[in-house]
Amino acid sequence: MSAAEKYNVKLGEALAKEFDSSFKFYRSRLELRRNSIEGHDSIVLSGSHKFSPHISVRFYFGVNFAKARLAEKEIFGDANPAYYHIHQYSINRNHMIGLDYKGPFTWNINIQDPPDILEEVKKAIEGMALPFFKRFSNLRDARDAKAKRDSWCLSGDLFWHHILAMDMALNDMAHFNEWKKTIKPFYAKQAEKKILGLKLENA
């Protein structure tokens, strides 16, 4: 484990304690996770380590829905399951229209002489991730937001597989077939091929 990875592990463990262990920290994924009504909420520490010992600290945050996870497994198998079905990245704070939080969203530090950023990162999580989790706690609301390219989430043609999994979980393939008409042919063909394969398997 590199020095940068060790720093993030230490930060993640400290954050879990700050949230009274409502989040469990997974060292191998640098992930803070807590159970939710329809799955689990996830925060993944990220950033650049290219110029270590000078690194950046950022985080992704998203929701993983249990029903969508089952649909995803049916569609794609066990390979590379999604961390989340709807998510955002802290550096996109200014893109989240209506967000009240205006504090730091990325930290550039020297891990050989690191400042104490624990409280700032905690406040950033409280200001960005917790409102996100509340807004997208419901699978249908999350699906609608992602399909409509809501400013609070990462979206677009590239994420067709997330929409497909959520629509299958909602038993709403009619929605996916309509949404598929709005994306680039390259991605639409990938989706059609996957859907056709499922139909053949279940024939």
Task: Characterize this entry briefly.
The chain is of the alpha+beta class and 203 residues long.
Write the layout of secondary structure elements.
Blueprint lengths: L2 H16 L5 E3 L4 E6 L2 E8 L7 E12 H11 L9 E4 L17 E4 L7 H18 L3 H9 L12 H10 L3 H7 L5 H18 L1
Antiparallel strand pairs: 1-2, 2-3, 3-4, 4-5, 4-6
Summed up, the domain count is 1
Poorly predicted runs are none
> What structural class do helix, strand and pairing data support?
alpha+beta
* Oligomeric organization of the protein chains: single chain
Give an overview of the whole structure:
The protein has helices spanning 3-18, 66-76, 118-135, 139-147, 160-169, 173-179, 185-202, and strands spanning 24-26, 31-36, 39-46, 54-65, 86-89, 107-110. It is of the alpha+beta class and 203 residues long. α2 (66-76) crosses α5 and α5 (160-169) packs antiparallel against α6 (173-179). Strands 1, 2, 3, 4, 5 and 6 form a 6-stranded antiparallel beta sheet that branches. The protein is elongated. Helices cover 44% and strands 18% of the residues. The protein is built from 7 helices and 6 strands, in the order αββββαββααααα. The model has no long low-confidence stretch (mean pLDDT 93). It has one domain (3-202). A hairpin with a 2-residue loop joins β2 and β3.
